[in-house]
Design brief:
Layout (H helix, E strand, L loop, with lengths): L10 H23 L1 H4 L5 H22 L6 H5 L1
Helix pairs in contact: 1-3
C-alpha cells in the first residue's frame, strides 16, 4: 500500500481530498472567527477540541487520498 503513495492519484480522489481539506479549513477558521459567540454555548476546551479535530481530519483525509492510484487502463488512455 505504501508504494501507491508516490503514484499518480486519480482526479476524483484528489478532488475529495482537496474538498476535505478545504472544509476543515473553513470550519477551523470559522471557529476561530466566531470564538466569542461559540464560547457562550461551549467551553473554551470544547471549542479547541472542535477546531483541532477539524484540522486533523482534513489533513488526514487529504493524506489518505494519496494512497489511491490510477488504474493502468485509465493512465494508458
Amino acid at each position: 500500500m505504501m508504494k501507491n503513495y508516490w503514484k499518480p492519484t486519480p482526479k476524483k480522489w484528489r478532488k475529495l481530498g482537496d474538498g476535505l481539506l478545504a472544509a476543515a479549513a473553513i470550519v477551523a477558521v470559522g471557529g476561530v472567527w466566531q470564538y466569542d459567540m461559540l464560547k457562550e454555548i461551549f467551553t473554551a476546551q470544547e471549542i479547541k477540541i472542535m477546531i483541532v479535530s477539524s484540522i486533523v481530519l482534513g489533513v488526514v483525509g487529504k493524506f489518505l487520498t494519496n494512497f489511491f492510484k490510477s488504474d493502468d487502463k485509465e493512465s494508458q488512455e
